[in-house]
Amino acid sequence: MPSKLIENTMRVNRLPHIWCPGCGHGILMRDVAQAIENCGLDPDKVVIVSGIGCSSRAAGYMNYNTLHTTHGRAIAFATGVKLANPELHVIVITGDGDATAIGGNHLIHAARRNIDLTVIVFNNSIYGMTGGQYSPTTPHMEKGTTAPYGNIDYVFDIPKLAEAAGATFTGRCSAYHAQQAIKLIEEGIRHHGFSVIDGVSVCPTYYGRKNKKGDSVKMLNWQKENFVDVKVAEKLPPEKLEGKTLIGKFYESNDKEEYTDMYMNLIERAGGNK
Amino acid sequence: MAGKRFQVLQGNEAVVEGGIAAGMRFYSGYPITPSTEIAERSALRLPQVGGKFIQMEDEIGGIAAALGASMAGLKAMTATSGPGFSLKQENIGYAAIAEIPIVIVDVQREGPSTGLPTSPSQGDLMQSKWGTHGDHPVIVISPSSVQECYNETVRAFNMAERFRVPVIFLMDEIVGHLREGCELIPPEELTISNRRVDREFNGTLAYAVQEGNYVPEYAPFGSGDHFNVTGLFHNLDGFPTNDSEVTDSQERRLLDKITKRRDRIEKWEEVDTDDCEVMIICFGGTARAVEGAMDASHQYDSVKIGMFRPITVWPFPEAALHKILKHNKHLRQIIVAEHNDGQMILEVQRLVEGTVPVTHLGKIDGTTITPDEILEKIKEVY
Fold it and tell me: Which of A69, A109, A115, A259 best tests the B interface by mutation, with the highest count of B CBs <10 A?
């Protein structure tokens, strides 16, 4: 029997999902659904836009208006949906490769515009759908099927990238810390501007196996032990934070006007409301 | 404001005015010569009618945002030229399989890659049909005058909406930058089609069609029906499937939307095709040189020349050409004149099947074919 939340927010007849046993994406998808519920959004006005890859299959399971687009382009499609009808709540579910490699340009430019989209990156540090190639978030010197000698690339820090590009809300959450993740995504949805949340998932099948990280439980436990809330981290000495990953809300600003608000003013100035 | 009913406009400007008359309320694109005036006028004009314009970060974003806007219920357009048209191809296929109405303008310029950005060409004819991967439906319209830019943009939107397909508006630099008189026919005097949303929409079968129809009805995002849109092959409910029977039936329906409705889509112009001895087949801006050659030949009373000009270049007006071949007993020679190294001629040769000699007049140096060059070609082959 599905829970009340699953029944209310998912297309139950489409489940079970296609993700591998132990994948963190199911947890993150549920977190997004719970956050939408907590915000009290009218489901008819919620649009989930996704790209291509493991992450982006989430759209098909969620019982809203769902648009599963082309690789890397979710944010660009979402920009069109939102500008066409600013009343819609547009949430983008994307992956590390989708959002920061092939779709990196759309990520930074949507951030620059400060258009009111909420982007949640299901970040599993690998290209899972194609079988484990290194992505822009595969850690330096770790392995992928296209990095058999270790990945000499350096990683993107997604929240920092987004903030530098102009996003007005950034943060990170993890598959393990579900309650914190729900709260952060909720805040991201409520924020009136471009929000980017790095949702760190676990991929035991490809990233985990290739790099001897153990099974899903072990990988989730690693998140438990090594992820530190940014507020807790403020009170810790630097030596205690070595090798740790920060989670929580990193940045929020309401200084910049939101893009579609500005466009509606522009229409007014051009005389288009007559 | 649109202003006076009769104006002197560029082809590129007329496309925007025609689009707005047809109900276009969203434009997203990226600047590229020689199509940029389309973006510029859209940026100016759309907010005046309550519409939206956005300059995206790249060509791919330009088509992607337009498709998103179309799903949210607005009639949407993007415009580009050669290099940008190449970049947009993947999402043209997405529009085809997800059945999202959109008009994509390609103002052709000379050569592959960056080529000659400010010079005319018709080298994208085959790309406009086959550019995106996989079998897919597409309608391509090629205007030859500023008035036709206006009128045919209206028709492009109508067909995009009616058939839920990407419609490509294949211009060339000649027509895009040509300035001439244009009548801005107001919407109330035009036939305007909208996507069908009148049915009691059943979101659970978003891609089901009514009997005898090929086009599913549609509800915009936000209207209360939670359906799924994907570029994967999908069941009638819009969800992905690998089933070969479903794939076959869906793919065939997508293609049938065009092939079974050719009579409602194809459009062409014929001049003196009943009894001409030499028939020139051309499209887009090249037709202007052909018209010049025909005027000159009338003056000098030489060989009788006719012209066959597909306005809908894809699907190619096959039946119309076959009819001419069947009825015109004087026809001795066909010349296909186009600004490329031989693209439309392939389609013509396929249809003529050797019954009349077909020769090519092409140009790929960035200059326009002149009426004199056409007359010389006639002398050479006839």
Answer: A69
| List of long-range contacts for A221-228, beta carbons under 8 Å, 24+ apart | A221/A176, A223/A174, A223/A175, A223/A176, A223/A177, A224/A176, A224/A177, A227/A174, A227/A176, A227/A177, A227/A200
Measured distance CA(B284)–CA(A210) in Å, rounded: 57
- What pLDDT was estimated at residue B301? 65
**Closest CA of chain B from A165, distance in Å:** 13
Q: Which CATH architecture has domain B269-381?
A: 3-Layer(aba) Sandwich (3.40)
Longest CA pairwise span in chain B (Å): 68
- All residue ranges of chain A with pLDDT < 70 are 1
Tell me what pLDDT residue B102 has: 98
**Rounded distance between C-alpha atoms, residue B312 and residue B169, angstroms:** 9
Do the domains B6-189 and B269-381 sit in the same CATH topology, yes or no? yes
Per-residue tokens: A154: 């350096």
Helix ranges (H only) for A235-272 are: 259-270
Those residues whose C-beta lies under 8 Å from the C-beta of residue B237, and which sit 6 or more positions away, are B204, B205, B206, B207, B227, B228
What would the pLDDT profile of B136-174 be if each residue is shown by its tens digit? 999 999 999 999 999 999 999 999 999 999 999 999 999
Cβ-nearest to A84 among B60, B69, B94: B69
Torsion sign (Cα): A255, A184, A29, A37: negative
Looking at residue A138, its amino acid is T
Q: Mark yes or no for CB contact A85/B222 under 8 Å.
A: yes
- Tell me what pLDDT residue B107 has: 98
Domains and CATH numbers, chain A: 4-270 (3.40.50.970)
- Token digits of residue B292: 């010049």
**Helix, strand, or coil (residue A66):** strand
- CB burial string B25-54: b at 16+ within 10 A, e below: bbbbbbebbbbbbbbebbbebbbebebbbb
Predicted complex: ipTM over 0.95: yes
Tell which of B207, B228, B237 to mutate to test the A interface (max A CBs under 10 Å). B228
Which tokens go with B277?
């001895």
The answer to whether the bond into B186 is cis (omega within 30° of 0) is no
3-state class of A103 per DSSP? Answer: coil
Q: Which residues of B touch A83 (CB under 8 A)?
A: 26, 52, 54, 65, 69
- Within 8 A of A80 by CB-CB distance, chain B residues are 26, 28, 54, 64-72, 76
Give me A88's structure tokens.
Answer: 């819609």
Cβ–Cβ gap A73/B60 under 8 Å: yes
Domain chopping of chain B, boundaries: 6-189, 269-381
Query: Domain B6-189 sits in which CATH superfamily?
Result: Thiamin diphosphate (ThDP)-binding fold, Pyr/PP domains (3.40.50.970)
